[in-house]
Amino acid sequence: MRTRLLIYCFGASVLLGCESSQDRLADAESGISRYCVDCHNDAERAGGLTLESRNLAAVTDDAELWEKVVRKLRAGMMPPSGNPAPDRDSLASYLEARLDAYAAEYPNPGRSVALHRLNRNEYANAIRDLLAVDLDVSELLPPDDSSFGFDNIAGVLKISPTLLERYLAAAEQVSRVAVGRAGTVTSIHWFRVADDRSQERRLPKLPFGTRGGTRIEYTFPVNAEYEIAAELQRNLNESVPLYAEPQMLEVAIDGERVAVFTLDAVPLAESGSESSADPIFAATLVQTQETADAGLKLDRDGRNARDRADQAWRVRVPVTAGKHVVTAAFLNRTSALEETLRLPFERPYPSGVNITEMRAGAYLRSLEISGPYDMASAGSAASRERIFVCEAADADPLSDANVDCAERIIAALARRAYRRDVGEAEVAPLLAFYRSGAADGFDAGVQRAVKGLLVAPEFLFRFERDPEGVLANTPYALDAFELASRLSFFLWSSIPDDALLDLASRGKLSDPAVLAKQAQRLLADEKASAFVRNFAGQWLFLRNLEASVPVQSNFPDFDDTLRQGLRQETELFFESIVREDRGALELLTADYTFVNGRVAKHYGIDNVQGAHFRRVNLGADSHRRGLLGHGSILTVTSYPDRTSPVIRGKWILENLLGAPPPAPPPNVPALVETDGSGTHLTMRERLAKHRADPNCAGCHAVMDPLGFSLENFDAVGRWRTVGDAGEPVDATGSMPDGAEFVGAEGLRGALLSSDLFVTTLTEKLLTYALGRGIEPHDMPTVRKIVREAAEEDYRFSALIQGVVGSDAFRMRMAEEGGAE
Amino acid sequence: MTFVTRRSLSRRRFLRGASVAIGLPLLDAMVPAFAQAPPAPKRIGFVYLPNGVAMNFSGINYWTPRGVGTDMQLSPILTPLARHRDRLSVVSGLAQPNAEALEDGANGDHTRATSSWLTGVYPKRTEGADVQNGISADQIAAHQLGEETALPSLELGIDLNFLSGQCENSYSCVYLNTLAWRSPSAPLPSENNPRIVFERLFGDGGTAEQRTARAIEDRSILDFVTSDLARLSKGLGARDRVQVSDYLDSVREVERRIQAVENLGGDTGSPTLERPRGIPERFDEHVKLMYELQWLAFQADMTRVVTFMLGRELNFRTYPEIGIEEGHHGLSHHQDRPEQIEKLARLNTYQTDLFAWYLDKLAATPEGDGTLLDHSLFLYGASLSNPNQHAHFDLPLTVVGGDRAQHQGGRHVVFDPKRWTPMTNLLLDLLEQVGVRTESLGDSTGRLEMSA
Lengths: 820, 452
Fold this sequence. Notes:
The complex is a heterodimer of chains A (820) and B (452). Chain A is an alpha+beta fold. Chain A folds into five domains: 2-105, no CATH class; 115-141 and 152-181 and 382-463, serine acetyltransferase, domain 1 (Orthogonal Bundle); 187-377, Jelly Rolls; 471-524 and 755-820, no CATH class; 531-752, no CATH class. Chain A has a four-stranded antiparallel beta sheet with strand order 2-9-4-7, with no helix packed on it. In chain A, strand 14 and strand 15 form a beta hairpin. Chain B has two domains: 17-199 and 274-433, Alkaline Phosphatase, subunit A, CATH 3.40.720; 204-267.
């Protein structure tokens, strides 16, 4: 015992004076026996945990357990608020110091599984960077399962027969587009416009003088004709509403008009007898019983010609290979009719039986692009330039010169695709594909080789293997190429570029200074926006906005334009912190945000017009400061019809405080709606009853008060002072340790009073960077990153560099059994 | 076979409500030769309702029929199935004990409800690489029934999970996302895009010759994958080799499927249906399209085993078209409020309407000496009874269709809920009915005799 303790003292001597360590051990022991063991003893085992017979002197024998204790202490969750507590900070600090000292002595970088499949986003980025092919892969590949809050976790990214089939089909399509060979079938892409996107005004990045519509960036595989077809939105009866003015849809490619489709006006007299006398609605008289009936039965023959008008809305145009922007938007009416007068709400309301049409003009439902037809030539799309580092020298695909060229092409692609130097062993099987495909010409041979490459295990999976001769259960430094992949998938969600591969090839990347410099370079690159979208999108739940449908009766203005706007606000905000290398705490405190006209109106910010986003100063005393005031987060943590202090509280615990509560026990009693006398209770009162139940109290006493502090924001993030039940909002909340505060401002202050927020952010970053869950043995690494970043005011680059420079990132633990 | 190219059909026809119901005649050429010779293939389908159902409340039997045996009076939710009454048995009182919390904690009722429904196994609580469940009933069926078909089984869903934080803590999302487990460690992803399902079934177009050429090409690529994996697995440790061997299993399975396409001479059928464009916005259109594809797959004998989730547990979908604007999961926690339960019942009735629509199609499609429904057995139900309580007992389950000699319908079969008879006993019987004999499944205690 004595010798062990000495070892710990030695390891810990930097942090603790060894002199006092005996005293501190005694303090910690007495703290635990006084404040913890009452519940966490061998008999009671509260929460399945006993601290009774643990030897604190041998803390590292039970590192996992003590890390749990640290977490609960740090979050203020234990001892529960209201109970006598030790000085949580000093007890936690003592334990941390001991654990960290041990970790410094015996580093454990952890081990992720050997095969790490690229997820769907990474696949899309990889084919972009490998082949200059920009395709929407959501049609090609299924979404990925997630664990630990992210969808890039190696252990759960499995392969299945279905997925492999999809990879084969995707490889066929991608390779054809890349090389510029038309497929055996016409490909058709259908782009649906969200039903609840308002199309009354100009939408972001659509031409001036238009309203509504959609914008698509589309990669045309070859020089050929393509067909673009537009479809009108219907009403609830599947009929095209009637409008008193003609509706003109302009289709353009790269801003050049290629067609204007017109839906004729319907004179008022013809639109039925139910015309409203109200001039405001006169233009959109929609529902005669006849059209309503026809719609109800969806009887095709019964529909009038109007309902078929858009069947002719298709145009064939020659387009050159490569990426182009296709837009379809309605031309603004020339009429002086003030449209906003007729539009009580931002969200569009289609008509149905006995429901008046509330949309002022026609809406676009979908745009379809099909082709190629009448292929002219392969063209010179960017992908061909990327692939064909040499050209066919003569007409015989199997001539020496052509095979040499094919080999060069394949070797260059394989190096990027496999993310390491390649030799004969890698090139030969791909060259065999070239030969078998070359019967149909040089391009066909290359296409076949590219297809093979895209299904190769080394493209689809990142392999990390233990080096020969490494001792079992021993940390070792990753191979330089493996490290290059870790870095590029972390910051770009994609494959390394040539510069990174070259450094790896020359053995430079293992030099920490070089690695740090590369991390800086990658982060500054345009491609790092993938980090914002994928990391922030999942950490902050921004992706969930797509599925948020606030109920229209309560939130009649919430539409898809706002939904996209709120998401974009938070993405731009997060990106500005990263790109401008600001302190991570600004995520909570920033007195600025990014809005366009729609978002500004939602927030009640004056004098912001138009569809483009700009940075606005909120003022030091704004209640919208930082992420806690972002409509995106406030919406995804609400129910469709009301706020949920529980969901918000849980979100804060999990994503800002790093202390996820357990889920509810089985047989949860229902939330009581009324008191005994039938009086309706407010949400706060109902949840108070909930917390009175001891089964629920354990977690709800922690979650609910956090959520209550945001009650001034409604379920779509608007500021309010009156709650759902008509009561004045009471935004009093408290931290898990019982410290009270009021409102978002108070919550912000409480979050800033410790380094829990930064610690949680770091844990999330490390999870995302490593593609595995954080284990107790990773916590010393997390704390080290946080400690070092603190010296740089938590600048974002300091956190990233901390992650990249950590042992967990640069090293790996050899498998227990060892390699065969 | 007429190869109707998609351009000659109205492309708008497909996604418009009733237009989904294209009553196409069965083209002889669509049915592979062996399917015409008796006996007709036996098929099995599992239709899963997420977030439980409205059971019985304040004297209203929303789900459970009144009366036992042939005295069954169909409940409101099951009334849409009335026209198939003689083909259906409502089975009450069975349980899924392994969806309970058991020893390792309270969390995860929805997760276990999904993952145990067809396995009867308590899933390992993990978010890591060590996910562990049991082999599922559909996959046991697929192992035998799928030998002759291009796809051993189809795994379909309505929502795919791309959301954050919508899985229960410390369980990987994969447990919530699929019912089908090929092995205890190999979950099969489900698909919700009708277009992709269509292309998996019938290819993405082209002629039979082109498809055959593609099949040969794909096989050579898979040969390359196999040999490459052998090269790459050198130097991997024992645990990592397991991953490689899972990979190789997948390669072999795809090779088998490609072989099946080749055996058909590339003729995978298809042209009676226009290739769907994507995912319809409306729930009912989407569901009908997915049923339509199942109908086609059965009819053309592309597969004989299907799982179909009408949504995943915990989903927050709203159904404004039937006046339900709260999220589904929130609504399912109905707090015993009568109006909430009524709403949930309305939603469950809506789901059953759509299922009845599918059964109608099957019953209207002649095959051999009967109809497709005679040769297709379904389990329709949920893995939670009272969702407000996350109850894993007295599960709402209904068996429909199948061989009349084996499955006599028109009955309400009742077990004592207090005995917690595992529903895997019923699954064993369903497997038996389609000719798949299995001794046990998960926690089964013996085959339940339905044909009594």
